[in-house]
Design a protein that fits this description.
Order of helices and strands: EEEEEEEHEEEEEEHHH
Strand content: 35-45%
Distance between the termini: 35 Å
Shape: globular
Largest sheet: 7 strands, mixed
CATH topology of the largest domain: Nucleoside Triphosphate Pyrophosphohydrolase
CATH superfamily of the largest domain: Nucleoside Triphosphate Pyrophosphohydrolase
Number of strands: 13
Number of helices: 4
Structural class: alpha+beta
């Protein structure tokens, strides 16, 4: 957490850098710093008995596999951001949303990542990805979804990777994930 006494020393497009002085246990002082960025959302969209994943390309990076998602705009509600990202990147929509979890993926970056589940997702429009994105949406089975951590091109937060691996190898975790995804 960035203390109220911190000073922003750099404002970037995505990241801001904050610094502050802090007293150490021995009474000396040191300068600490932390990054801050906009919160993000990712969506596990359930379509029938499958899950929607994306094959994506962005300029300057290798193709990767991910879930729909992106940055939360300033003053935007996180659920509205999740709905917007799903619609923009895939053309899909849902009326059945559940916040699955919110985590701070890295302790030196003030940033929350919110994972939503969109049950009963359906194609509602044509996708409209950002100019810097090439996206192909595809459906995978639950079993294929559990295998995604093995794919080196899969971009995921550690919490999702751990959840998928646990569900792959632990029967109770598998059934819990199946229930939360498919109801």
């Amino acid at each position: 957490m960035i203390p109220a006494s911190a000073t922003r020393v750099f404002k970037g497009t995505i990241f801001d850098v904050y610094q502050w002085e802090q007293e150490l246990f021995d009474g000396s002082r040191a300068t600490f710093e932390m990054l801050k960025r906009p919160d993000t959302v990712q969506v596990i969209a359930v379509v029938g008995d499958c899950i929607l994943v994306l094959d994506q390309e962005q300029p300057g990076s290798k193709p990767f596999v991910c879930l729909p998602g992106g940055r939360v705009d300033e003053e935007e509600d996180v659920l509205e951001a999740a709905k917007r990202e799903l619609r923009e990147e895939t053309g899909y929509a849902s009326d059945d949303w559940v916040l699955h979890r919110s985590v701070q993926p890295m302790n030196k970056i003030a940033w929350l990542s919110h994972t939503f589940i969109a049950r009963n997702a359906r194609r509602a429009a044509e996708p409209h990805p950002d100019a810097g994105e090439r996206i192909r949406a595809r459906l995978v089975t639950f079993e294929e979804f559990l295998q995604l951590p093995d794919d080196p091109a899969f971009r995921r937060h550690q919490d999702l990777q751990v959840e998928l691996l646990r569900a792959r190898y632990e029967k109770e975790a598998r059934e819990a994930l199946r229930t939360v995804l498919f109801g």
